[in-house]
Amino acid sequence: MNEKVLQHILIKVEKYRKKKQIISKKDVKILDYGCGKGESVIWFKEKGYNNTYGVDINPIRIKNGIKLLSEKGYSKIFLELFDKNGRISFPENYFDFVFSNQVFEHVEDINKVINEIYRITKENGEGFHIFPVKWGLLEGHLYMPFIHWIPKNNLRKFLIFLFVSIGLEPRDPRWKETIGKNKKVRAETYYKYSINKTFYRNSSELESVFRKFNFRVTSYPFKKTITKREIIRRIILPNFLLLTQAKKT
Predict the structure, then answer these.
(1) Range list of H helices, the chain
(2) CA 54, 58, 59, 65: dihedral to nearest 10 degrees?
(3) Alpha carbon distance 243, 37 (integer Å)
(4) CATH fold of 3-134+200-246
(5) Per DSSP, which regions of 62-157 are E strands?
(6) φ, ψ dihedrals at 95, nearest 5°
(7) What is the pTM of this model?
(8) Residues of the chain with CATH 3.40.50.150
(9) Contact 61/34 with Cβ under 8 angstroms?
(10) Is 132 within 8 Å of 105 (Cβ atoms)?
(11) Residue 63 DSSP SS3
(12) Which end of the chain, N or C, is less surrounded by CB atoms within 10 Å?
């Protein structure tokens, strides 16, 4: 998670703290939902928010994150894996602020996730969630246009192979399984990822799910003034931002 995004989240956390008249930063419990190896957890701790936690579905990332925390002098208790049912060990009404970044597009059962976020959020606790929307021109993991618009069938598979054939494919080193492989194998890898690991939705769909689980929802722009460059970026790779508040009474 880059510094700019973290700064935006910090601004919302600070506003929440002042609104609730919480004097000490350490009394604010924060959760990064889908934390990877927990760089954001460390970042918030270094800003004085010592009760920042992270959860993730990937055991390798959590293992690496625990090592990173240890190197910084923090306990491993601040990172946790989801259980097999997608739940986490924290009690109900535990967190003041829950945030996620580029997570919801990887969630198949979004109702289960939002319900769990509601369970662990305090009354009037808040959240800040950033996710790519369905109708951006470019799929942000494969860097291929329109792929995520196409139904998960042979047409999508063919188009991915076509893009790979003309050299339009990820150059990210994280795609280690495609190194040295032929076009057909690479295209098959990308296709399986797109159908099994990505679940794009319209922003209105996610807003509706949050409201169903008794959240107040407000869309939130990164910038009030938008440059031409920002307009182009938002058309190609648009992110949507939701500020949420849990209603429990």
Answers:
(1) 3-19, 39-46, 59-71, 110-120, 154-165, 183-196, 203-212, 228-236
(2) -40
(3) 24
(4) Rossmann fold (3.40.50)
(5) 79-81, 95-101, 121-132, 138-139, 144-145
(6) -100, 140
(7) 0.92
(8) 3-134+200-246
(9) no
(10) yes
(11) helix
(12) C
Nearest to 59 by CA among 32, 27, 83, 94: 83
Q: Residue-wise pLDDT tens for the chain (249 aa)?
A: 789 899 999 999 999 999 999 999 999 999 999 999 999 999 999 999 999 999 999 999 999 999 999 999 999 999 999 998 889 999 999 999 999 999 999 999 999 999 999 999 999 999 999 999 888 899 999 999 999 999 999 999 999 999 999 999 998 878 999 999 999 999 999 999 999 999 999 889 999 999 999 999 998 655 555 676 666 666 676 777 888 999 987
Other CB atoms within 10 A of residue 227 CB:
9
Antiparallel, parallel or unpaired: β 95-101 and 215-219: unpaired
Q: Tokens standing for 83?
A: 């259980």
